Amino acid sequence: MQMNCDNINEHDKFTMTFSLSQSNELFDDDEASKQHRIINVKRVSLPRKGENWEVLDDGRKVLILRGVRLTKREKSVLRTVEGIRIVIEEYKSGNKSVTKIKSKLREHWKKCHDKV
Question: From CA 73, how far away is CA 41, in angstroms rounded?
């Protein structure tokens, strides 16, 4: 069946030329329906200039880093993107110990402020 191209608008020409099909080898239906974990780190302001950091796994609080238990150096690292990345990496690796996370933050601070 031959179509008359004079009666077809631009949108139809585009969809006829560039149609997407799900039978494409690049499209994987199983991968599209798979849900991934979402891990967030949220800074919570407290009264009197206090602050805490909460690690959320799919919206559930799983770990709280209390600001009163952190040094100024550790807090300064946590206020950066690198500090948040460190916390997320440690949580993903199964490390839920606050002391181990603090030691990683201290190592990062020393590495960034090392005067050689």
Answer: 18
Are 92 and 39 a contacting pair, CB within 8 Å? yes
Tokens of 65: 């880093």
Radius of gyration of the chain, Cα coordinates, nearest whole angstrom: 25
Query: What is the mean pLDDT of the segment spanning 76-98?
Result: 93
Alpha-carbon gap, residue 4 to 1, rounded angstroms: 10
Task: Quote the CA–CA distance of 41 and 82 in Å, as a whole number.
Answer: 12
Amino acid at 7: N
Burial pattern 39-70, b for ≥16 Cβ within 10 A else e, equals eebeeeeeeeeebbbebeeeeeeebebebeeb
pLDDT average, residue stretch 80-95: 93
